[in-house]
C-alpha cells in the first residue's frame, strides 16, 4: 500500500516549511515513548529557524536527544510534560530554566482529553509509518498520540520510511471517551483486541506531512551484573513460592516491567526459571522480553512501545510479520489503565531510587530536590497490581549510598501501596506487616550489611524520642543521611 494516499500528496512539504506552522507560545503534543516513535526532523527545523520560542511540549514518555536534547539546549522550551530521560533536559529542569510537570502516565491522555487545567494542544506532531484516508498508522510506540491527534487544532506528520509497513495491524486504538460518558474497556486478556489499527484523523486536520528516513536512537542496556542476576534469582524464587502456596497460577499473572538495565536483567532471570506460557501487560517491551518471546516463554504482550537495543531493533523490524499477532501496541491510556491493571491482576516490577524502613519508595528524586526522569507508569501499576515488587541494588556509588534509608527524601509510592522489596541481600515481604515489622524486615533482609548497624541504631533512637510509637521517627535525624551525602559524598 502507498504510505500517503493520493488525496494527501499536496500536504507533503519540507520540515522547514512545516516548522513555520509552529509559533511562539504554542503547546505541542508530540509522539514518542521510551525513545521510540518521536519526531526528529521538526525539532531540528524549529531549532534551526529559531522563530518559535516559549513552547510547551507534552509527550507520552521519554524521547531521544535529537528531540528533547536539541530543543532544550536551544532554549525554545518553556514547559515540559510528563516524563523525560534526557540529560540536557534534566539539567535545565533542575536549574529552573524549564518548568517540568511530572505526572502518572495514565493521567496524561485523561488531562488532554478533558482539557483539565486549561491545557489545549495547538498542534500534534506525530511520527507515523503511513497515512490512510481513515487515519494514521503510528510508529512502534503509541504513547498519548491518539489523545494529541484527537484534541489538537492541527496535525503535522513525520512519515518515517524506515518503518516497515508490516507494522500495520500491530496497533489497537480504542477511544474510551470522557466522563460522564466514558466507556468500560472490554479487555479481559492481554491479547484481546478491541479497537482499530489506526489513529482516527480527519484528512482536513492534517496540515503537513514531512517525509523522513531518520531512525530512533536505540537505548543501550548495560550487561547484567552478578548483583542484578542475584536480584533476578530472588524474584524468581519468591514467585515460585507464591505458586507453591496457591496464591498465583503456574503461568503467573500477566507481568509488567519498568524500564532500564535492572528491569531488563530481572526479566532475563525468567529464561531459566521453569515458568512458561507467560503474558505481559506492560508499558515498555524491552530486549529481555523479546528474547523470552522468541524462546516461547512469553506467549504475547500488550505494550505501549517496543524499545530495543540496535541489534534487536533490526531483528524486530526484519520479523515484524511474525510478531504482529503476538504484540499489541496500545496507547498509554489503555496500557497504564488502572481499570485494566486491576482486572488482569498484574505482577508489577519496578526499580526505585531508594526505599525507607517503613516501605515508602522514592522513584524520582536525588536528595529530595533533583529530579531524575519522572514517575512514569510505576504509580499506575503499583497502586493497582495484584502484586507489586520494587527491586534495586542495596547500595549505589560503590557503597557511598544506601538504597535503604531511615526516611526517603521524596515519596512517590507510600507504604500503603508497596508490597515486596528486593535487593541482592534478599526479599522483604511487607504484606500485612506493621510499620515496626516492616522496618525489621527491610533492615535484615534488604539493607547492605555495612548500613544495617546504622539503621538499627536509628530505629532504637527513634523509638526513644518519637512521641508516637506506631511509626517512630527521630525527625532531627531522619534525613541526616542525605545531608551527610550532600556534604561529604557518602552516607556513612
Explain what this protein looks like in three dimensions:
With 492 residues, the chain is an alpha/beta fold. The chain folds into two domains: 6-212, Glutaconate Coenzyme A-transferase, CATH 3.40.1080.10; 226-484, Glutaconate Coenzyme A-transferase, CATH 3.40.1080. The protein has 17 helices and 26 strands. The strands form seven sheets. Strands 1, 2, 3, 4, 5, 6, 7, 8 and 9 form a nine-stranded mixed beta sheet that branches. Strands 10-16-21-25-26 form a five-stranded mixed beta sheet, with helices on both faces. Helix 5 packs parallel to helix 6 (145-151), helix 8 runs parallel beside helix 9 (287-294) and helix 13 (338-344) packs across helix 14. The longest helix is centred in the middle third of the chain and has 19 residues, at 226-244.
Q: What is the top-level CATH class of the largest domain?
A: Alpha Beta
CATH architecture of the largest domain: 3-Layer(aba) Sandwich
pLDDT < 50 runs, ≥5 residues: none
- Give the CATH superfamily of the largest domain: Glutaconate Coenzyme A-transferase
Structural class: alpha/beta
Number of strands: 26
> What count of structural domains?
2
Strand proportion, as a percent range, falls in 15-25%
Fraction of residues in helix: 25-40%
Q: Any idea of the CATH topology of the largest domain?
A: Glutaconate Coenzyme A-transferase
Question: If helices are DSSP runs of H or I spanning 4 or more residues, what is the number of helices?
Answer: 17
Distance between the termini: 63 Å
Shape: globular
Cα-atom radius of gyration: 23 Å
The main sheet comes to: 9 strands, mixed
Mean pLDDT: 97
Amino acid at each position: 500500500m502507498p504510505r500517503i494516499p493520493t488525496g494527501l500528496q499536496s500536504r507533503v512539504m519540507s520540515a522547514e516549511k512545516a516548522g513555520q506552522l509552529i509559533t511562539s507560545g504554542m503547546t505541542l503534543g508530540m509522539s514518542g515513548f521510551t525513545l521510540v516513535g518521536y519526531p526528529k526532523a521538526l525539532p531540528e527545523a524549529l531549532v534551526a529557524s529559531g522563530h518559535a520560542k516559549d513552547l510547551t511540549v507534552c509527550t507520552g514518555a521519554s524521547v531521544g536527544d535529537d528531540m528533547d536534547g536539541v530543543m532544550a539546549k536551544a532554549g525554545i522550551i518553556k514547559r515540559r510534560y510528563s516524563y523525560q530521560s534526557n540529560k540536557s533536559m534534566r539539567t535545565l529542569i533542575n536549574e529552573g530554566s524549564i518548568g517540568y510537570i511530572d505526572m502518572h502516565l495514565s493521567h496524561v491522555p485523561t488531562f488532554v482529553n478533558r482539557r483539565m487545567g486549561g491545557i489545549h494542544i495547538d498542534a500534534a506532531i506525530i511520527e507515523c509509518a503511513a497515512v490512510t484516508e481513515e487515519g494514521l498508522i503510528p510508529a512502534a510506540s503509541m504513547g498519548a498520540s491518539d489523545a494529541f491527534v484527537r484534541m489538537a487544532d492541527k496535525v503535522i506528520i513525520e512519515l518515517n520510511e524506515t518503518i516497515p509497513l508490516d507494522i500495520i495491524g500491530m496497533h489497537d486504538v480504542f477511544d474510551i471517551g470522557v466522563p460522564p460518558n466514558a466507556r468500560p474497556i472490554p479487555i479481559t486478556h492481554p491479547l484481546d483486541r478491541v479497537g482499530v489499527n489506526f489513529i482516527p484523523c480527519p484528512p482536513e486536520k492534517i496540515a503537513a506531512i514531512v517525509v523522513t528516513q531518520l531512525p530512533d536512537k536505540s537505548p543501550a542496556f548495560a550487561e547484567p551484573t552478578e548483583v542484578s542476576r542475584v536480584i533476578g534469582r530472588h524474584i524468581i524464587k519468591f514467585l515460585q513460592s507464591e505458586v507453591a502456596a496457591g496464591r498465583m497460577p503456574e503461568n503467573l499473572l500477566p507481568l509488567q516491567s519498568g524500564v532500564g538495565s535492572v528491569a531488563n536483567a530481572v526479566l532475563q532471570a525468567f529464561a531459566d526459571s521453569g515458568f512458561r506460557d507467560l503474558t505481559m501487560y506492560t508499558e515498555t517491551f524491552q530486549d529481555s522480553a523479546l528474547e523470552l518471546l522468541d524462546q516461547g516463554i512469553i506467549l504475547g504482550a500488550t505494550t505501549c512501545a517496543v524499545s530495543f537495543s540496535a541489534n534487536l531493533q533490526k531483528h524486530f523490524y526484519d520479523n515484524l510479520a511474525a510478531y504482529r499477532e503476538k504484540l499489541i501496541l496500545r496507547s498509554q491510556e489503555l496500557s497504564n489503565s488502572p481499570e485494566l491493571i486491576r482486572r488482569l491482576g498484574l505482577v508489577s516490577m519496578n526499580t526505585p531510587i531508594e526505599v525507607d524502613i517503613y516501605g515508602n519508595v522514592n522513584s524520582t528524586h536525588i536528595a529530595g530536590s533533583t529530579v531524575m526522569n519522572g514517575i512514569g507508569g510505576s504509580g499506575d501499576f503499583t497502586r493497582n497490581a495484584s502484586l507489586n515488587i520494587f527491586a534495586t541494588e542495596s547500595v549505589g556509588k560503590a557503597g557511598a549510598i544506601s538504597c535503604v534509608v531511615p526516611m526517603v527524601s521524596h515519596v512517590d509510592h507510600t507504604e500503603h501501596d508497596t508490597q515486596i522489596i528486593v535487593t541482592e541481600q534478599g526479599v522483604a515481604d511487607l504484606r500485612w506487616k506493621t510499620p515496626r515489622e516492616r522496618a525489621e524486615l527491610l533492615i535484615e533482609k534488604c539493607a547492605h550489611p555495612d548500613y544495617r548497624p546504622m539503621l538499627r541504631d536509628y530505629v532504637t533512637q527513634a523509638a526513644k524520642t518519637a512521641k508516637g510509637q506506631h511509626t517512630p521517627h527521630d525527625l532531627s535525624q531522619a534525613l541526616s543521611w542525605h545531608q551527610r551525602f550532600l556534604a561529604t559524598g557518602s552516607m556513612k
